[in-house]
């Protein structure tokens, strides 16, 4: 693989007596979609929370572009170009797509009006519109409340938002879990395009065929450790499931 | 692995989108259905429509209710052309609503953020009492005494608002219960301060304000108009306003977006309390007595107006313009019934059912929108 952009080594995390992560390794490279899979309780979400700044690890180190980093909060990670698309999307349903894209990062008008906190709505709309267009996302009405969009479009808005703010890593937690077949196809295309922009995409999914379809590499977590790493090309669902359940040890690719 | 051909969007796409207001015409030609369309078209199926702000406004609740208001005015004017469309009626109605409107602006902020404030009527009374007590403690008749009294009224209101906000955000007591509690507490505290009797002695300087009517309207009307305009602009056009909508629409997403939700809510309750304080000063100015027992239903009247104006009970939706319309409707009905010799008690009956109907229509619209 190419040089890892984000790399975690020996990450450990316990809750009381429960050891969720036991020296887990993980790495993602620029321009690649890396799938992170594992059975329930394998430690996927804990690992992602640590890598996106929502949790602090008890042990191990995280390197971003070779530099050792520590995130005190998700905002720290945001500041370093790392964003997360949450499973429940975290969109404000009553607000429009552009308003959601700029939530918490509103642009203000220049000059005295900006000092008074007046929003630069036109610039935000234009930039959101351009971001959607660049990502090939068909948001019909950028001002329509997000609740009026289809599930796939909502997912696209959430992904575009993360891409607009992340220049390094985007974590996506089950981005297609609630979607139908067609919309899933569109979102997978979008995920591919995010990676093609040179961003490292981490995809958490339970859908094995989907993982093999969209990912470049697959890393398997079991009982708090990375137990296998596959190049998606040439790997079968059986191999993935085998690694997840421990029936089959995979080879590092 | 099945490689998904990553379709680079057409080079011109971004440029096209920049001309968005005209790009609406393209949407018809795109033709792909919005639930996925033909997969093969991928990045090419750009459908970006810019709905005109006018059309958007006309489909909003304030516009509907504004129409209702206009029809009511026309109806009463047609029934009693000599009595209703007069400056005297306009003066009465605007004076009647001014105190409620000031509180309703604060309530709009709180409700857009998904909150609730039942305490405002009692906070109004408490602030009026504090103002009267402050003025009589300072003594004298000067304008400075009145200004000090008004400042004390606003501060007293802000203090109750902070109590509300901190109980709701720090102690996590639901807004309904917190403000129900402070509603009782603020009224009780007012009665403790006054021994249960209204304070009726106010400085002459205050009475001068009461009786002066620049351009035919009471000072209270100007204060209410100023609060409504300022409140409306801040809610619609500033970051503070935007954060209010974000908090009300999805608190968790606002938090993840880096907004300090607790601090924002405390500020909103402080604003609501502070405006109730302003309303207390206005009420004392108007009646020259603290009217302790006269504000038990203020909060409910204000909430009725805010909801009639299209603010959602679930947060995330609402405008001050709508609130102005919603506050006007009951007042116009009341005055209209008086001049048309309908028993004015009908006003409460009608408003009750209009309120239910308004929320029902809102619910229908929401259900239709969320069907996808």
TrEMBL record, chain A:
Residues 6-248 form the ABC transporter domain. CDD domains: ABC_Carb_Monos_I. The keyword Oxidoreductase does not apply. PROSITE patterns: ABC_TRANSPORTER_2. SUPFAM superfamilies: P-loop containing nucleoside triphosphate hydrolases. Coiled coil: none annotated. This is ATP-binding cassette domain-containing protein. It comes from Actinomadura fibrosa.
TrEMBL record, chain B:
It is found in: Cell membrane. Coiled coil: none annotated. It is a multi-pass membrane protein. Residues 1-38 are annotated as: Disordered. The chain crosses the membrane at residues 61-79, 100-130, 142-163, 175-196, 216-237, 313-333, 345-361. The keyword Membrane applies. Residues 1-26 have a biased composition (Low complexity). Residues 27-38 have a biased composition (Gly residues). The keyword tRNA-binding does not apply. Pfam families: BPD_transp_2. Its main location: membrane. Keywords: Cell membrane, Membrane, Transmembrane, Transmembrane helix. This is ABC transporter permease. It comes from Actinomadura fibrosa. The lineage of its organism: Bacteria, Bacillati, Actinomycetota, Actinomycetes, Streptosporangiales.
């Amino acid at each position: 693989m190419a040089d890892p952009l984000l790399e975690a080594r020996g990450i450990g995390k316990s809750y009381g007596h429960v050891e969720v992560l036991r020296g887990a390794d993980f790495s993602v490279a620029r321009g690649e979609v890396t799938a992170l899979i594992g059975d329930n309780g394998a430690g996927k979400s804990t690992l992602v929370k640590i890598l996106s700044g929502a949790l602090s690890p008890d042990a191990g180190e995280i390197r971003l572009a070779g530099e050792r980093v520590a995130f005190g909060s998700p905002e720290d990670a945001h500041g370093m170009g790392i964003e997360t698309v949450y499973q429940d999307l975290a969109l404000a349903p009553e607000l429009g797509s552009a308003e959601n894209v700029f939530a918490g990062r509103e642009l203000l008008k220049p000059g005295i009006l900006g000092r008074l906190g007046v929003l630069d709505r036109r610039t935000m709309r234009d930039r959101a519109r351009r971001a959607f267009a660049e990502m090939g996302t068909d948001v019909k009405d950028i001002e329509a409340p997000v609740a009026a969009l289809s599930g796939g479009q909502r997912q696209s808005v959430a992904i575009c938002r993360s891409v607009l703010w992340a220049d390094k890593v985007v974590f996506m937690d089950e981005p297609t879990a609630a979607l139908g077949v067609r919309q899933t196809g569109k979102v997978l295309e979008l995920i591919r395009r995010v990676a093609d922009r040179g961003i490292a995409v981490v995809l958490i999914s339970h859908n094995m065929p989907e993982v093999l379809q969209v990912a470049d590499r697959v890393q398997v977590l079991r009982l708090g450790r990375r137990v296998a790493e596959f190049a998606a090309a040439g790997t079968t669902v059986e191999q993935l499931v085998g690694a997840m359940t421990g029936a089959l040890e995979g080879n590092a690719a | 692995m099945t490689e998904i051909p990553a379709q680079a969007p057409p080079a011109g796409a971004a440029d096209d989108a920049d001309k968005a207001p005209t790009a609406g015409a393209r949407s018809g030609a795109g033709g792909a259905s919005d639930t996925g369309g033909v997969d093969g078209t991928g990045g090419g199926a750009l459908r970006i429509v810019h709905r005109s702000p006018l059309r958007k406004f006309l489909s909003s609740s304030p516009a509907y209710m504004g129409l209702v208001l206009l029809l009511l005015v026309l109806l009463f004017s047609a029934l009693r052309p000599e009595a209703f469309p007069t400056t005297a009626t306009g003066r009465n109605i605007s004076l009647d609503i001014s105190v409620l409107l000031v509180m309703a602006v604060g309530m709009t902020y709180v409700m857009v953020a998904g909150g609730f404030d039942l305490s405002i009527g009692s906070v109004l009374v408490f602030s009026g009492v504090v103002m009267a007590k402050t003025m009589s403690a300072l003594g004298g008749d000067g304008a400075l005494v009145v200004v000090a009294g008004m400042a004390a009224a606003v501060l007293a209101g802000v203090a109750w608002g902070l109590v509300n906000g901190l109980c709701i955000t720090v102690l996590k007591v639901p807004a309904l219960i917190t403000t129900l509690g402070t509603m009782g507490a603020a009224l009780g505290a007012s009665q403790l301060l006054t021994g249960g009797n209204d304070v009726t002695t106010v400085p002459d300087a205050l009475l001068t304000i009461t009786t002066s009517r620049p351009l035919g309207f009471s000072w209270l009307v100007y204060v209410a108009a100023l609060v409504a305009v300022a409140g409306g602009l801040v809610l619609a056009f500033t970051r503070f306003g935007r954060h209010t909508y974000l908090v009300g629409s999805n608190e968790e997403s606002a938090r993840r977006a880096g907004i300090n939700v607790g601090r924002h809510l405390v500020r909103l309750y402080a604003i609501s309390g502070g405006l109730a304080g302003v309303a207390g000063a206005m009420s004392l100015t108007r009646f020259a007595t603290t009217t302790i027992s006269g504000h038990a239903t203020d909060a409910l009247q204000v909430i009725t107006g805010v909801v009639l104006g299209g603010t959602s009970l679930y947060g995330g939706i609402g405008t001050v313009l709508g609130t102005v319309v919603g506050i006007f409707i009951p007042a116009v009905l009341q005055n209209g019934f008086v001049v048309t010799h309908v028993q004015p008690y009908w006003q409460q009956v009608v408003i009750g059912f209009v309120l239910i109907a308004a929320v029902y229509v809102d619910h229908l619209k929401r259900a239709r929108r969320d069907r996808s």
